[in-house]
Amino acid sequence: MRQIPVELGEGSYRIDIAAGLLCDASWWASQVAGRQVAIVTDTRVARHYLEPLAKVVGQAADGIVKIVLEAGEHNKDWKTLDEIFDGLLAARCDRNTILIALGGGVIGDIAGFAAASFMRGIEFIQVPTTLLAQVDSSIGGKTGINHARGKNMVGAFYQPRAVLIDPATLASLPPREVAAGAAEVIKHAAIASRPHFEWLEVRIEALMALEAETVAQAIEESCRIKAGVVAADEREGGVRALLNFGHTFGHAIEAGLGYGTWLHGEAVAAGMVQAAELSVLCGRLARSDAQRLTELIGRARLPVRAPDLGWQRWQDLMAVDKKSLRGAPRFVLLKGLGAASLEAVDAQLVKRAIDANIAETRTPVRGELLP
Amino acid sequence: MRQIPVELGEGSYRIDIAAGLLCDASWWASQVAGRQVAIVTDTRVARHYLEPLAKVVGQAADGIVKIVLEAGEHNKDWKTLDEIFDGLLAARCDRNTILIALGGGVIGDIAGFAAASFMRGIEFIQVPTTLLAQVDSSIGGKTGINHARGKNMVGAFYQPRAVLIDPATLASLPPREVAAGAAEVIKHAAIASRPHFEWLEVRIEALMALEAETVAQAIEESCRIKAGVVAADEREGGVRALLNFGHTFGHAIEAGLGYGTWLHGEAVAAGMVQAAELSVLCGRLARSDAQRLTELIGRARLPVRAPDLGWQRWQDLMAVDKKSLRGAPRFVLLKGLGAASLEAVDAQLVKRAIDANIAETRTPVRGELLP
Asked: What is the pLDDT of residues B307-327, one digit of tens each?
């Protein structure tokens, strides 16, 4: 088993990674023995993993509550959150109940925020089942829901008591979602590790094909990078904002087209190409390094061009970004492959970076650079 | 100025108490200089204090946003919370914005939860304007909203950066709300300080008449007791639960009649009489001490009898109390005047304690024991 500590003082916890861990009775016994457990998942994930998980957890727990939500980013709102509260209260869950978030990034975010705010906070365990959640969103304690005026505008920093990653669950994942997860793998390498970036340049096709050893290593390396950043800056006062590389543009794409039209990872992929272009325009990044990043994104069958939202709409959407100061967006720029910084940028350069990478269609064109 | 520290390590802050402090320009300059400020209040409080406060804060702040909500406990829900988020986002507030919660307990709870969860947490200042909020709810970082299945079921432990208490704001408070605040003053004395209880037995009429020195001293003493308990147990793992004396019954009264029918302090008052009766039935408290508590509550023009909800309904409502373990309610019992403990109690004794103090009407009968 690969184990990665997330060092946060009193709130420290461990990420455990192993194929088959989802149904490991002794792992669960060590976490939930004698406690009431509520499993929160969505309809898609429930089909594959809810009953096997409920069975193994049930051997150790004192009672299980199952809460199954509708899948999808467009359900990451108050209404769905309230379904969790309703389910917990109907089953007489209390402050001693442990919540398990079983699913992708949406489930982790919404169930994590439910755990953060139910009776002002109960313990929870992240069990991510998508590549995106395994390499990124389940780590670091960001939880929340969307608001009509912006993504993830309401939420909490709230750490899980543990993260269980079973790469075998990726077998049931559609290729489009594997690619979306790879976007965050590439992002972590781009901002923090040139060796990992170069490893990905060799292994990207093996990763997309879910070759077991490659997947496990990519997950481990991404988790290590993210855990290190989170340990240094839990509440995003500084360095943690670098994890938002590609996200200022990416969030605008998601919101501009309506959440769920593009997958988060797809929007971040096109956003990283724009952010790399902006880095070049600002004199921070060599054109050849931006090109290497764009090529890697294309080989991961991710879009390298953004939809045409119109400049005014781009501006409005980016102004509500959480990194903004008094309405002025700030951008994570690359200073080379494996290094990044957060900067305010002249709006005209932002416009040029966007214009340089606009697609002719609003549908994500995947792997555009492939032969 | 009376100053009380709330010792919570990194999250430590100060309670400042002085008549006229609400419009003290130098106090505000020390808190909000150069920052965008959002003032959240309700229609009733806004009439008296919004413009004076906005004027003095505006001298130091970089921009002011005013968000005025409908008053009342029945509005302490997601819909109202979302109005705050909407107002903050429409005004392009960001993570650097400071939120001011100006009002009673409902405003403090809901605006505090908005501060806790807007962009995963922004700074806020509590400016309580009711006696109940000044002596109790603004201290200690409990924030939240109600759920159809129970009061304060959704929220966060989230500490303000400061609490400003201006007793002069009580002049505009209806006598019924002064009494409701006195209930928590009595509660703090009953669980933690026999000398303060005996001081109240002498000063209760002066407190109800808002005699300035008495009010200031009562507020200071209540804040000291509460701050001490909170410092010892911020997240209610132990001793903090004692602040819930009278609240297991009280919350059931509020929920059973519909939030807002009785004021929180009125429900707690009748709940304390029931809890004292239960303490006597459990052999923890002398009958004469229970009688002294009941008389003090009556002299504060608070109800000493609860409405007749029916035993089944009492049980259902108390089962969702946050102190419950697997559906079994626990009660704060007095072990004398100035001492308390949290205990599970036989249901038949609970029923007897309720039956001993049922009123013939659902309207709170105030000061029933007065000559």
From this structure: 999 999 999 999 878 787 777
Q: Looking at A83-92, B259-268, B360-369, which range is the least confident one?
A: B360-369
pTM of the model: 0.91
Q: Is A123 a catalytic residue?
A: no
How is domain A2-170 classified at the architecture level of CATH? 3-Layer(aba) Sandwich (3.40)
Distance in angstroms (rounded) separating the CA atoms of residues B318 and B329: 6
Q: Annotated catalytic, B251?
A: yes
How many residue pairs bridge chain A and chain B with CB atoms within 8 Å of each other?
110
Interchain proximity A92–B235, CB inside 8 Å: no
**Residue-wise pLDDT tens digits, B55-102:** 999 999 999 999 999 988 889 999 999 999 999 999 999 999 999 999
Which position has the higher pLDDT, A103 or B149?
A103
Told to judge if A213 belongs to the known catalytic residues of this protein, a careful annotator would answer no
Helix, strand and coil in chain A, % to nearest 5? 50, 20, 30
Q: What is the DSSP string of B257-311?
A: H-TTSS-HHHHHHHHHHHHHHHHHHTTSS-HHHHHHHHHHHHHTT---SB----H
Sort residue B100 into left (φ over 0), alpha (ψ -120 to 50) or beta. Answer: beta
CATH code linked to domain B2-171: 3.40.50.1970
A368, burial (CB in 10 Å: exposed 0-12, middle 13-18, buried 19+): middle
Q: Is residue B366 a contact partner of residue B269, using CB atoms and an 8 Å limit?
A: no
For chain B, the residue count is 371
Distance from CA of A354 to the nearest CA of B (A): 23
Could you give the ipTM of this predicted complex?
Answer: 0.89
Is A141 at the interface with chain B, CB within 8 A?
no
* CB-CB under 8 Å, A120 with B235: yes
Answer CATH for B175-355 from 2.60.40.420, 3.30.200.20, 3.30.1460.10, 1.20.1090.10: 1.20.1090.10
- The whole-number pLDDT of residue B299 equals 97
> Which of the residues A44, A188, A196, A264 is marked catalytic?
A264
